[in-house]
């Protein structure tokens, strides 16, 4: 009986956490990182501020959890390992439909020099992306669909840099076609 009660509590806690993350993403996307307060997230989630702090002790913790949740959704939606480059392009294309998420991502990226948590998040994210993209390029080289002289790691770094750079440009001018630029860059790199 006690085990069942604990499972129910855990399930309720996880459901509450997921609901908070959905509300937080909405707030960050709508208001931006700086203008989103823990009080506002708590209010929209139907919690007291103390209730929110029980799940996420600081705004940065909540912010990182939102980004990690988005990364899991992107990975699940796009099956990252099977088509890493296509996944990157689709994620960038989808990001253009969620302006607040792009602002959120770039804001946290700017926090890297000041936050060990943000740095750890991005180091892990970039390591994984480079690894998946490099492996896909290597497989393409073995299959004969990608230029054999292309350095997989350098190409992976360049694709990620184009994706991030286009997000910066897009923040300044939303008419920029972020995903098209990443796709174009990949086409230039991959084919002779």
From TrEMBL:
Alphabetized UniProt keyword annotations: DNA-binding, Repressor, Transcription, Transcription regulation
DNA-binding region: 37-56
Residue span, HTH tetR-type domain: 14-74
Keyword Zinc in record: no
Coiled-coil residues: none
One Pfam family linked to the record: TetR_N
PANTHER family in the record: HTH-TYPE TRANSCRIPTIONAL REGULATOR RUTR, HTH-TYPE TRANSCRIPTIONAL REPRESSOR RV1474C
UniProt name for this protein: TetR/AcrR family transcriptional regulator
Organism of origin: Kineosporia corallincola
């Amino acid at each position: 009986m006690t085990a069942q009660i604990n499972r129910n509590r855990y399930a309720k806690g996880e459901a509450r956490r997921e609901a908070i993350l959905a509300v937080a993403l909405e707030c960050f996307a709508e208001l931006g990182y700086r203008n989103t307060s823990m009080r506002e997230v708590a209010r929209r989630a139907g919690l007291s501020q103390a209730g929110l702090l029980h799940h996420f002790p600081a705004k940065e913790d909540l912010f990182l959890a939102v980004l990690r949740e988005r990364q899991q959704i992107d990975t699940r939606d796009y099956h990252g390992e099977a088509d890493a480059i296509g996944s990157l392009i689709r994620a960038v294309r989808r990001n253009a439909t969620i302006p607040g998420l792009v602002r959120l991502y770039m804001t946290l990226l700017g926090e890297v020099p000041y936050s060990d948590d943000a740095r750890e998040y991005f180091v892990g994210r970039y390591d994984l992306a480079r690894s998946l993209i490099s492996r896909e390029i290597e497989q393409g080289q073995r299959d004969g669909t990608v230029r054999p002289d292309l350095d997989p790691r350098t190409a992976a770094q360049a694709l990620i840099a184009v994706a991030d750079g286009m997000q910066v440009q897009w923040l300044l001018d939303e008419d920029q076609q972020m995903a098209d630029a990443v796709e174009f860059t990949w086409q230039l790199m991959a084919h002779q």
